[in-house]
Every structure is written in C-alpha cells, then in structure tokens.
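hiii, so i know i said id send this last week but things got crazy w the move. better late than never?? heres the sequnce for the chain we talked about at the cafe, plus the structure i predicted for it. fair warning i was half asleep when i ran it
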Amino acid sequence: MNPVRPIWFYTYVLKSRKNNTFYTGVTTNLKKRLDEHNKGLVISTKHRRPLQLIYYEACLDKDDAFRREKYLKTGMGKRYLKNRLKGILKEAI
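okay and structure toks below
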C-alpha cells in the first residue's frame, strides 16, 4: 500500500546577484522553479539573473502559501525577512 504523498506549496524569495533586488513567488516544485528563473524562462526575473534562493516556507494549503507570499511583499513582510535573514543580507553590503 502506497501512502499518499502530500502536495507542498512553497513560498520562496529569490535575490538577484546582479542588482540585489528580491522576487517572491509560490510553487509546488521549488527546484524546477529556481531552474526556470535562472534559465531566463520567467519574464519578471529574466533580466535579474543570476538568482539565489535565500528563503522558503512550505505549506500544505495553497491559499496559505499565497497569503504568505502577499504578506512577504508588504512593508511588514520585508521587515520580517530583513530581521530573519540578517546574515545573508549582510553579505550584500
């Protein structure tokens, strides 16, 4: 009997190594999506390559993942990431 594997929804944040900007998104396949970003297959990040995955969260509920994405794009969400990722963000300075 095969156990049913849950579908995870990943909210992720990428940092452009070219201009230090951030991109936040949601996917069910984090590795594949990162590859798509770095191959230039995503219009919104095509000109910001190379991109580095700096943060992600996993949710079992799609709506929760999209709510989290929306939050991370707000001023409070950006402040949360700044405090949470002090080490990685300090490297850019």
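btw The first helix runs from residue 30 to 38. thought thatd interest u
miss u guys!!
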